[in-house]
Structure formats: C-alpha cells, structure tokens
Amino acid sequence: MRGEFKISDALLFDGTKPFPFKAVEVQKNLEDELIKRNEELKKSMKRASRGAQTTSKAVNAGKLLEKVFPTMADFKWELSDCRFLGEPIDLIIFHGLTFNFFYT
Fold it and tell me: Are residues 40 and 79 in the same domain?
C-alpha cells in the first residue's frame, strides 16, 4: 500500500493477549484474498501452458510443411530450381536454373 497512513487509523493491540475481533476479521479477509489469488494464478498458469503447447504444435507442423510443400503434386516449379532457406524466407525459386545450368 502506498500513500499516507495515519497512526490513529491503526488497530493497536498487545500480541501476548488474544487478538481483538477486528484484527482476526482483517486476518481472515487477507487469508481469503491470498487463497483466491493463488487459485487464479494456478488457472492462469494452466491456460498459459495449454496455449504454449498449442503454439508449439502449430509451429512444428508449419516447419514440417514448409519442407514438404515443394514435393506435393500441385507444386508447379521444378524441385531442382528451389532452394530452401528456412527463416524468415521458406523457399526461393530460381526459375530455369536447372535448365540453364545443365544445358549451357
């Protein structure tokens, strides 16, 4: 807590004697708030973990597909004209490279 605090607003008591009712009430409220925050933190950690797993699976599938894509039947360029780079550019196609290289 920040800001000004007046000592007259404090609840003062002797710690060797039983806690006053108001102190027990404040303590109970703080413990309840701590339990609530702990539960929210656990839920948040589970969501983050699930999100990370989903993202990881998607990234891995994407990396696999970018390598397999040139071998698919609908790929209209010569595979030997293609050069795989990876990140951030998947593939560069030098159209006619194979033809010019072998027939010049």
Answer: no
- CA nearest to 63, candidates 48, 84, 42, 81: 84
Domain of 103, in residue numbers? 73-104
Q: For the chain, percent helix, then strand, then coil, each to nearest 5? A: 60, 5, 35
Whether residue 92 lies inside any domain: the answer is: yes
pLDDT in tens, 37-77: 999 999 999 888 888 888 898 888 888 887 777 777 787 88
Is 13 in a helix, a strand, or coil?
coil
Contact between residue 97 and residue 80 where contact means Cβ atoms under 8 Å apart: yes
User: What Rg, from alpha-carbon coordinates, does the chain have?
Assistant: 33
81-102 per-position pLDDT tens digit: 888 777 777 778 887 777 655 5
In a domain, 9, yes or no: no
User: One-letter amino acid identity for 42?
Assistant: K
Residues 46 and 62 in one domain: yes
Query: CB within 8 A of 16, min separation 6: which ones?
Result: none
